[in-house]
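Design review, sub-item: ligand-bound model
Attendees: FS, YL, KQ
YL presented the inputs for the magnesium ion complex:
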Amino acid sequence: MSVYSAPAVVKPLSVTDLAAMKRGGEKISCLTAYDASFSALLDRVGIDVILVGDSLGMVIQGQQSTVPVIMDDMVYHSRCVTRVRTRAFVVTDLPFGSYATPEMALLNAARLLQAGGAQMVKLEGARLDVIRFLVDQGVPVCAHLGLLPQSINQLGAYRVQGKEPLVAEQILEHADKVEQAGASMLVLECVPASLAANISAKLSIPVIGIGAGVDCDGQVLVLYDILNLEAGKKPRFYKNFMAEANGVEEAVRLYHQAVKSCQYPAPEHCY
Ligand SMILES: Nc1nc(=O)c2c([nH]1)NC[C@@H]1CN(c3ccc(C(=O)N[C@@H](CCC(=O)O)C(=O)O)cc3)CN21
Ligand SMILES: CC(C)C(=O)C(=O)O
Ligand SMILES: [Mg+2]
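KQ shared the predicted structure:
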């Protein structure tokens, strides 16, 4: 036998690894990152999924919402993140206006996968035509339901969605339909915990919650929120993991462990 062993090449997690985690009952930890330093740190800690979110418009660019974010921003930040991570699965948001038609969505998704190095794209709303077309062309898609921040100019305010039975029923229906359209993951934002639990149990694809209770298959938060870097009004699901940590890496590790052990979110973080 050779004394030389093969180099320890770590392949990033794949969409099938994430599906297996759901089946096996292992919670999926996810945080946003927009640059190489945080990407490497999250990867080191073992965060399963890095989301290059259009929340970068707010926490990086200082915009009032995610609406001003453009494709060039998403490509640039995706590249910064994917260049250095070894294990984490990388999902990138398609920004406002970039998936108005299926053809447009494909051109933009291809930029995120090719130039950005992302493994999956995320889009807001039950855009079944767009999801089917992307999946048909080989693009893994994460749907995003509940609170849709790209629609803030119609919503007027960031609010919990699906408290009324009729709206809850519609979100459940949309969740079913995006799965049938071929989405391989779903983010549920700001919905009652009971609704998110029902959806997570019903779907076979991983459901990642933010302000959606502990019974989702995984959790996602904006990195800067767990690091207590966000000033202003704090949403319910907000938790400052720096409070119990000695530094940034430990805060991320505490978040990771809290998600894996179902300690986060606690009832006070839920709707
Ligand atoms: N830093 C940051 N963190 C986020 O979680 C985040 C962003 N930015 N930007 C894009 C969206 C906007 N998000 C938000 C923003 C505010 C609330 C919020 O204030 N929610 C109220 C709801 C009150 C109610 O409906 O009763 C809350 O008190 O939780 C929720 C989600 C989530 N996303
Ligand atoms: C908050 C998450 C789900 C997101 O879409 C973002 O960071 O843009
Ligand atoms: Mg987003």
